[in-house]
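Morning F.,

Quick status update on the modeling queue. The single chain you submitted on Monday has been processed. Sequence for confirmation:
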Amino acid sequence: MVEISQSDFDLLVQQIRELTARVHRLESALGTSQAAAKAPRQETVTRVVEPPPPVPPTRPAPPPPAFVVPSTATQHSDLETRIGSHWLNRIGIAAVLIGVSYFLKYAFDSGWIGPTGRVAIGLIAGIAVMLWSERFRSRGYRVFSYSLKAVGIGVLYLSFWAAFQVYHLIQSGPAFACMLLITASTCALALSQDAEILAVFAISGGFSTPVLVSTGVNHEVALFSYVALLDLGILTLVAFKPWRRLLWLGFTGTLILYVAWSSEYYIRSELQPTLIFATLFFIIFAIAPLFMLRQEHGTGMMPLALAFVNAATYFAQAYLMITEISNTAMAWFALALAAVYLALNRMRPRNADEAAESNLRLMHLALAVGLITVAIPIRLEAHWITIGWFVEAAVLLWLGDRIKSDLLNVFALTALMLGVARLLLYDNFVNPPLIFNMRMLVYAVAICVLGLVAYHALRRNDDLTKNVGAVAAVALNILALTALSLEIRDYYSQQMTTFRPGSSVIANWTDLRIARDFSYSALWMGYGAMLMAIGFWRKSAFIRWQALILIALTTVKVFAYDTSELERIYRILSFIVLGALLLAISFAYQRNWLKLPSRKPSSSAGDVA
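Structure tokens below.
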């Protein structure tokens, strides 16, 4: 063992004392009441001892975790702040304006202030409030400052309105110019202070100006020229600032003024200028979604909604005006509008969000297809509407297959469903010629288009498209059977109107009805046999199952209806033909011409037929 001298031992004791003092100071700093450890008693040791292990540095213990008890006030702090800072501000603006209005009205009614003084007070008060608001903005109270500016702007508009409409101190021209100056100044203030809310005040005042200075006289060109300039100004603002909501405000204001003017002043002789201005407004707000794309991320619902609403309102306005003159002109107008949206579909704005741009292009394409679909019933009549929708479906299907667009395929199916619905609900009219008539032509076009859909869909690999093809194939067979059954119905209906000489009306009608019902059974059995033959030839279980279902329905009809309703000769023919058909199909399956998998024969007696 190593011997330690007295001096080394004294040094070690001194270090222990210093460490003890440091621990005491640390505990005192942490607020603990722990007593300081007593220094070890110094005594002289003459024997040899081993040095103690080094003492590790002492670290203060971490404070215990603080548990914050959730407070109800904390949960509602955001709502409380919003109500207190925003909504109370807006209500306060309205209250101040109403209070000032009541005070001024009381002062005016009492004759305290003359007309000129009243207007001057309003102008001075409006300007003073706006200047006063800057003091709050410089101190960081931006929301309150903008609220005061709203009060000042409103007072200025009301002052010029009173000077023109109430007291007739100025004419409409100067009043309009002054209000326009207020609008422009507010826009400049919004840009300089980067405040969208001030731009909202300016645009609201801009659209209110024509109403405030209205003289009750029709000034269409002046009114709509001003509105167009205001809309272009909004478009310019949105081009430089991310204030896309201003476009919705501009669209709403434009629509309100346009509808209000049309309901009051529009007559047919003003079609041309009115349609020109409507087209100008449409172009502005058709371009607007392209500006909004630079501020959109994700789906871009605001540009999509604006594009759709703009197209719908413009088409509705044009329809009300143009159809009074010519449906043909309206159809060509719809096609021209579809061409415009196809052109917009090709436009690609810079710095646009990719997903939002893709959705907007799809919206433009959908609007173009929709306008083409609507143009067909406007221009065509009766069965030609159905044929037009079927032709449109075929063209869209071809285009979708060429450019690999699933959206065009969806539009094609939509047009196809419209055509089928109209064919079954409206176009089942009676045509005297048998087979070679207009109704059969419509059914033939529908069957061809459904065949095209089934052919293209069944060639694809995905299950959804194949299911669409299967539905199209089933619909094709249903339409074919329906068309042939309608021909049988019409033929016997015409025969029932002519009576054979020497026979009673009831006997003649009964014979024809029995022959018609037998013809239905014969047609369905023949069609089922044809489907079964095609299924064996094409080795298609899907076609064979359709044949089996049709033959099963025919069998039910023969046993349930023909047995009791048909005459003996027709009844005999029905059963013989049906039995022969069923035996032939059974023989084809037993010969296993399709090499279908079958169970191995069992030696049990129960399997012996």
